[in-house]
Design goal:
The chain is 51% helix and 22% strand. The chain has 195 residues and is an alpha+beta fold. α4 crosses α5. It is elongated and about 55 Å long. The N and C termini lie far apart (52 Å).
Length: 195
């Protein structure tokens, strides 16, 4: 079946009927983005949802000093979108950039919202997905951004070796809200702790 990994990931949250799958696949296109291409630019309307088949996507905003502040990194087999901008129908505050060459399944937010109205099972998938990824996962992220030290958060990132090894050091520093120099200091401390 075309896009079987995409359908498998949806069914993992909530099983869809054949009819719903057909309607959903009808609005999907496969797109390719080169490294450093923007999938979404801050200040633009977020018109698409994406499913990342291969590659790595960064989600960042720019502070007053012009620094990129990374909020999250998306790896293969994840759903990617500027969800808040789509829901509010406002321009996004975030940029989405291909940090590697990326292959995605892209589907228009407007057509997808219409399918949510039409198909009860798709609406249930959407609900389960949002609950798991935007409430359950996001709350600890928001808390850790404010209260945990950069060192502790760095160690958490280190635990996800596959992601850690793909992300450049300046992206990691930005994600942790520290300078590259501070990141070097943390890395030295940690390697010192191990000896």
């Amino acid at each position: 079946m075309k896009h079987s990994e995409f359908v498998k990931h949806i069914n993992h949250y909530y099983p869809l009927s054949e009819e719903t799958i057909k309607d959903l696949l009808d609005i999907c296109t496969e797109e390719y983005y080169h490294k450093n291409d923007l999938l979404l630019e801050s200040g633009s309307m977020a018109r698409y949802y994406y499913f990342l088949k291969s590659g790595l996507i960064g989600y960042y905003t720019v502070d007053e000093q012009g620094n990129n502040i990374y909020k999250i990194f998306f790896e293969e087999n994840t759903f990617v979108a500027s969800t808040a901008a789509i829901i509010k129908n406002e321009p996004s505050d975030f940029n989405m950039i291909a940090l590697e060459d990326c292959s995605v399944i892209q589907y228009p937010a407007k057509a997808y919202r219409e399918l949510l109205e039409k198909h009860h099972d798709l609406a249930l998938f959407h609900l389960h997905y949002l609950e798991k990824n935007w409430v359950v996962k996001k709350e600890p992220l928001e808390v850790s951004l404010k209260y945990e030290t950069a060192k502790k958060r760095y160690l958490q990132l280190l635990d996800n070796a596959s992601l850690y090894n793909r992300v450049k050091q300046h992206h990691i520093a930005s994600y942790l809200g520290i300078t590259p120099t501070q990141l070097s200091r943390i890395k030295k401390e940690i390697s010192g702790d191990k000896h």
